[in-house]
Design a protein that fits this description.
Layout (H helix, E strand, L loop, with lengths): L25 H5 L1 H15 L9 H20 L9 H23 L1 H4 L1 H6 L6 H27 L12 H25 L2 H15 L12 H7 L3 H14 L7 H25 L2 H4 L1
Helix pairs in contact: 2-7, 3-4, 4-7, 4-8, 4-9, 4-11, 7-8, 8-11, 8-12, 11-12
Length: about 280
């Protein structure tokens, strides 16, 4: 006599996690193919139906450099630490451009992909992260232009410190991602972020030593100035490529710590708000 085995139903209990496990960062690895796809999609959309295409990655920093050269070099006579001013400013515009491009696209990544959020499950962290990493393409294109400028002006990079370039590039990405996590989550509920973002990036530009040397800041304000994480990134990037300024010191360390704090707090806030995105957006 055949008997059919009966299986008792199982019960699965879903409980909220706590501590670092609540961030559930393992999901990013599980959805790594989606991250790559979103990066590729963002790059294609960015230059779709444009006449100049990827040349826009070069035009913007070059035009900014020319304006800075006229105002700060020819008119204001700002010191460039003995380096030709076009090289001095363009070198700083590379990490700054990576930061602002990532910040602008990542901050709007949730609202611009609202259909995905309301219809499909995936780690929402994929969207701002893909937007930030997509900025590396523009950075690489602009870096080629910088190499050509250094050849033209006969500026030799500091080979002993060039190893630090990826480190400060990573710090720029960390800072952009941390700020973008805060702004993208806030932007889901309050669309004021879209209006405040241009002002924020413009204000941040002038308190970052992109057009001028950080040496113009008096000693008593240096510690306060280091609270701007991009100040340490730009200073370190210039030092790694051009030997300008001081090697990484306490001020760069402070900026790096601030970048990490912004990222970790942004992760926590983003994860806490993630459960409400589909309902609010």
């Amino acid at each position: 006599m055949n008997s059919i085995a009966k299986h008792e139903p199982t019960t699965v209990y879903i409980r909220p996690t706590s501590g670092l496990a609540a961030l559930n960062l393992k999901d990013l690895w599980n959805y790594r193919e989606l991250v790559v796809f979103m990066i590729w999609r963002d790059i294609k959309v960015r230059y779709k139906q444009t006449l100049l295409g990827a040349l826009w990655a070069v035009i913007q920093p070059v035009m900014t450099m020319l304006v800075f050269n006229f105002l700060f070099n020819n008119v204001a006579k700002v010191s460039s630490d003995g380096i030709p001013y076009p090289i001095f400013s363009f070198t700083a515009l590379l990490p700054w451009g990576l930061f602002t491009t990532a910040l602008n696209t990542a901050s709007r990544s949730l609202t611009s992909n609202h259909n995905m959020i309301t219809n499909t499950y995936f780690p929402r962290l994929v969207l701002p992260m893909a937007s930030v990493l997509g900025g590396l393409v523009d950075f690489a294109i602009a870096l080629v232009i910088l190499v050509g400028m250094m050849v033209y002006f006969k500026v030799v990079p500091t080979l002993s410190a060039i190893w630090a370039v990826p480190v400060f590039m990573l710090l720029s990405i960390i800072t952009a991602l941390g700020v973008a996590l805060w702004l993208s989550a806030i932007n889901v509920k309050y669309r004021d972020v879209g209006y405040a973002l241009p002002f924020l990036t413009q204000f941040w530009l002038f308190i970052t030593p992109v057009a001028y040397s950080s040496k113009v800041i008096s000693e008593k304000w240096q510690l306060v100035y280091a609270l701007n994480p991009m100040a340490g990134v730009v200073n370190g990037f210039r030092w790694a490529l051009l030997g300008s300024g001081n090697p990484p010191d306490t001020l760069v360390a402070i900026s790096s710590v601030i970048s990490i704090i912004i990222l970790l707090s942004g992760l926590v806030y983003f994860r806490n708000m993630e459960r409400t995105f589909a309902d609010t957006i």
